[in-house]
Amino acid sequence: MANRPLPLGSSIAIIGAGIIGASAAFVLAERGYRVTLIDRDEPGLTGPSWGNAGHVVGSGIFPLAEPGIGFTGLRMLADPDAPLKVPAEYLPAIMPWLWRFWRASYGDAYETALKALISFNRAAVEESIALFQRAGMPERIRHDPALYLYESEASYRAALPHWKKRQQVDLHSTHVDADEIARLEPDLAPIFTRGVISHEWAIVTDPYEVVLGYVEAARERGVSVERGRVDAVTGRSGGVSVTVGGEARAFDAALIAAGVWSRELAQGLGEQLPVEAERGYNLTYPAPKATVRRPLVLADRGVVVTALKPGLRLGGWTELGGTRMPPNPSRWAKMREITDTVLPGLEGEPATEWMGHRPSMPDSVPVVSRSGKHPAIFYAVGHGHYGLSWSAKTARVVGELIGDSADQRYAALSIRRFGR
């Protein structure tokens, strides 16, 4: 039965009801499969799908592990205001992941990851808009170019090679000066000297609302949505066994899409899935007196700003601290300082605080593949900052892997790249 297309009407369990699992459930139901979507909580509540920045980033082609990241990362770790942090108590646990991260930052490994991301990211906005339409929620997404902002000529020039590379792969941009920035975003403080408009972007009304929309559309196509803790996924003759709350249940196939919590399920199968929790912090201002007209990327601060239905959301940063440590309140305090500096009209405004666990791979390339241990088990894990951005493409690829056995077409996304 190895790598044969799964017949229509077969039963599929999806573990994880975030944006990846929910969109995959909808697409697999569209294809004609009997889908059961299982999560330990209500759909969209427990992972980064609830409070992310709401961006669909068509220009997100660069791995986080870039050449020189070893030196840059050390400088950021030493800087209390930098967007990268590793709590000292978590450092021993994450050292193997950091070693893989560094190894992915240079030579052939970096070029392989960059090539994979360019290919996987292509037409991310168009695919997202099309899938929203098929799911009956076209009003929840709109094409909206983003404005990258630089506070010095030096930081702008340092970013130019990235913009040149994007142009080479048909990702379009427009460069603007300080006067144009002031015209485009009049509520911003006049601290930005250069900007770049990235045209392949979209934003959604509310990322949590999007997950609920996919779940509702999936239910309308017969998908069963269940709440329960999945303890194990194992292969069996003719299908898989999914243990939910201590009870083993039989399915024809299973998709593991539980974010960073997928790692334990992969370990149970004897597979290496080096996904790590990249903790992201957000502030949402529900009734802002200052606002923005388009998605903003504060390039020098590692922060994005978006006007969403729940309010003006400012978020970002990378804190590699696992899933068990409590949030660090100093991160929110620093974000409030940034808000006061960048959007002075928000100073003193109340904001809600949130922290979520982005599932990140050391090479920034998600695993969207068949298991190397059993042909009826699949993964869709490790999208990092781009879960919403790549959810439509991921759902399509999952459908092609399961329904068309398109493994060779997506070999760059395979879990096998980490060894057996």
Brief account:
With about 425 residues, this protein is α/β, with parallel strands linked by helices. The chain contains eleven helices and 21 strands. Strands 4, 6, 7, 8, 15, 16, 17, 18 and 19 form a nine-stranded mixed β-sheet that branches. Strands 10-2-1-14-21-20 form a six-stranded mixed β-sheet, covered by helices on one side.
Overview of this structure, please?
With 420 residues, the protein is of the alpha/beta class. Helices cover 33% and strands 26% of the residues. It contains 11 helices and 21 strands. The protein has helices at 19-31, 69-78, 91-103, 107-121, 124-134, 153-168, 178-184, 207-220, 262-268, 329-342, 387-404; strands at 11-15, 34-39, 55-57, 84-85, 141-143, 146-150, 173-177, 194-198, 201-204, 224-227, 230-236, 239-244, 247-251, 253-256, 276-285, 296-298, 303-308, 311-320, 352-360, 367-370, 377-381. Strands 4, 6, 7, 8, 15, 16, 17, 18 and 19 form a 9-stranded mixed β-sheet that branches. A 6-stranded mixed β-sheet has the order 10-2-1-14-21-20, covered by helices on one side. A 3-stranded antiparallel β-sheet has the order 3-9-5. A hairpin with a 2-residue loop joins strand 12 (239-244) and strand 13. Helix 1 runs parallel beside helix 8, helix 1 (19-31) runs parallel beside helix 11 (387-404) and helix 5 crosses helix 11 (387-404).
